[in-house]
Every structure is written in C-alpha cells, then in structure tokens.
Amino acid sequence: MSATHPAPSRSRGLLLLTVSNAVYILGGYVLTVALAHILGKSGFGSYGVVASFATVINMLVTRGVPIAAARGIAAHAEAAGDWVAASRYVMLPLSIGLAVVGIVAAWPLASLLGDSSLRLPMQVGALLALTFGFQAQLFSWMYGTENYNRQAVGQMAYGLGRVVTIVGGAQVAGLTGAIVGFVLGPLIGALPLVTRRPAGSSIAERNRLVRTLISSAMPIVVTATGVTLLMVVDIIAFKSVATKPDVGLYTAAASLAHIPYFLLQAASFVLLPSVAAAAAGPGLRAAVVKGVT
Questions:
Q1: 217: number of CA atoms within 13 Å, CB side?
Q2: Fewer CB within 10 Å of terminal CB in the chain, N or C?
Q3: Does pLDDT of 217 surpass 80?
Q4: In 3-state terms, what secondary structure has residue 90?
Q5: Residue 45 backbone phi and psi in degrees, to 5
Q6: 289: which residues sit within 8 A by CB, 6+ positions away?
Q7: 3-state DSSP helix/strand/coil percent for the chain, to nearest 5?
C-alpha cells in the first residue's frame, strides 16, 4: 500500500465484512418474509425468477472489471488514478450494453418460460446493470485501498436499504414495483462510498490499462457467472415445470442454502487486495519464478 493508504488490520477487516454480510443476510430474511406476505406464494415465485435473471446480469457487471480494477489499485498504488479512469471508461458502455441486452433477452426468455407477465419485470430488472455498475465502481476503490470501514458501511447500507426499496415498491406496484426497488437499492449502498478519487495521469496510460483490465476481467467474469448460474438456474428451470406457489416455496428455501456463500465472501474481499499487492513485489515474483523453474 502507499503511504497515503497504510494497510489496516486485515483480521479486523474480515470481522467487519463478515458482520456486514450477516446484516445483508438478515435483511434478506426480512425481505423474504415481507415479500411473501405482500405478493403471495405465486408472486414471490415470479419475483425469484426475475431476481435470478437480474442476478446473472449483475455478475457480468460487478465481478469482472471492478474486481480487476481493485486488484490493479492494490498492486500499483502509485497509478491508482489511471486504474480508476480505465475502469470508468470500460464500465459505462459495459453497463449500458448489458442493460440493453437484458431488456431484449426478456422477450424470448419470458416466452420460453411460458409466462408473458414476467417480460416487463425482467426488462425493468435489466436496468440494474446501470445501478450495480455505479455501485461496483465505488466499491472497487474501497477494495483496492483496503478501506474496510467504508466497505462494511456500504454493504450494510445496501443490505438494509434494499429492504426498504423492494418492500416499498411491492406495496405500491406489486411484482414490478418490487423489481424497481431491486434496481434502486444499489444507489443507497453507494452513498457511503462516494469519495474523491485521484485523476488519471494521461489518456495514453488509461487506454493501455483498458486493455489490461479487459484481459484480466474475462476469466473472472466467466468463473463468477458460472457460479451464479449454478445458484440460480435451478429456480428458472423449476419455473418451467412447477406451479408459481411451488416456485415461491423453492425460492425461499434456496435463499437459506446460500447463507455460507454470502458469509464466506468477506474473506475474498480481504484477501484480494492483499494478494495483489504482494504479487506485485519483486520478492514474491522471484520466489514464484524460482519455484516453477
């Protein structure tokens, strides 16, 4: 880390992020109970299908470029501004493009599932590519600089804020309103993360890092999207063979099964910048080269 960003206690960071993820999970329980009560089992089943579709888009936006940028910021603190500029340059068209793809894909997917009522909620859900993309941009700076306090506050703000926006939206406009709340939730989580970040040194350096970001992000996107599909494809597939009430019950049960995944995410948030910074050091590089030759 640079002199302006001294490395904090990583054990404390792990504790903070584990607690913030636990708050997120607790908010998820409240959300599940409230939505099931408001929408009913059938409506909650539809919500689960739409949320699964939106989650895949979310992974494509948040688990590639932002993670690669965080790794670059941690490994090259002196060029942090250039990494931020490169990330912003890639994320804007990526977020817009994925939102458009999601909106278009909602038509054939709703037809494939045999439920045209899902089309509009899915199209609304695709817009989360924009809000999650914005939030991920801010989170990547916190990851890269190991600012665990702000990360934890941002995660808790999102975990609790989404309950308010989704439940409020469901009360006003049913399923579509709940999805609107889903899309707006990341903006609440982004509020504690807004901070001044360094400017890039030059357009040429930004463009060079853009290529590095894209090549680094691709394997992350493939892996994260694959894991996410394993977690959500069952709900989408179940929708095609089961009744809406049964899908609602299955969605609630699946939420319980994902608890270990969300709790263990805290470790990756702490390890990523630490490993990236260490890997940039000549000592570790020399050791790796010696070990493989």
A1: 24
A2: C
A3: yes
A4: helix
A5: -60, -45
A6: none
A7: 85, 0, 15
